[in-house]
Fold:
Amino acid sequence: MTARREQKSERKRVEILRSAAWVFRQKGYFSATMEDISERLLMTKGSLYYYFKCKEEIFYHCQEYVLDRLLQGLQEAKTTEHDPAGRLGRLVKHHIAVITDDLTGSVLHLDFDLLSPPYLVPIIRKRDQYEKGIRRLIQDGVEQGTFRRCDVKLTAFALLGALNWVSKWHSPEGGLKAETIAHFYEDYLVGGLLAAGRVAQSSSRVLRSVTAAPTKAADQKKPIYQESNLAEESWLL
Structure:
């Protein structure tokens, strides 16, 4: 297969994953069918089976796609930033960018433990790799005096919980852009870890963008969950 054909095939696979993620979010994993996915794509089931042999394989690759992007962000944070706060802040912003994407955000609504062991084991391995990488970033910050002393494992879990929950309430049609949310979370989560004497970067720019006067389009009547960037299902459930 030529490089051009490989690129075309890969683009098609990602298109399938994106459509499948939407179907999984709308119908749930167990209710979704290969026919639902093919109809969403306006392609035949036979064409879909050319790329993936079953629904579980598609779901596995959706999960893998998310984790590969997160691990890429972890590596970039470690290699491009020179201080612990900068590395963790970059990771936080990348994580938000990933989970507010329509493919990855939809997949995060579903538990990957729906997968059978052959598919589940490599996903858990990558998840653990990402979690340990975050713990290492926090530990480095504590050891260098950038972050205050804390339970590194619990702190990593708290940070991941806060980040992943964004996919539950964020709506692309809402007033808050993903970039604004990312900067706010960077200030809030990383700033909260800074040791005494360390000054967090001012978040006034972020707060101004959040509280700015609404545009004419925003003035129009909308459901409250759209005005506040909440998804239709309540985050309190």
In short: The domain at 59-227 is CATH 1.10.357.10 (Tetracycline Repressor; domain 2). Residues 180 and 206 are 6 Å apart (CA to CA). The radius of gyration is 20 Å. The longest helix spans residues 117-143.
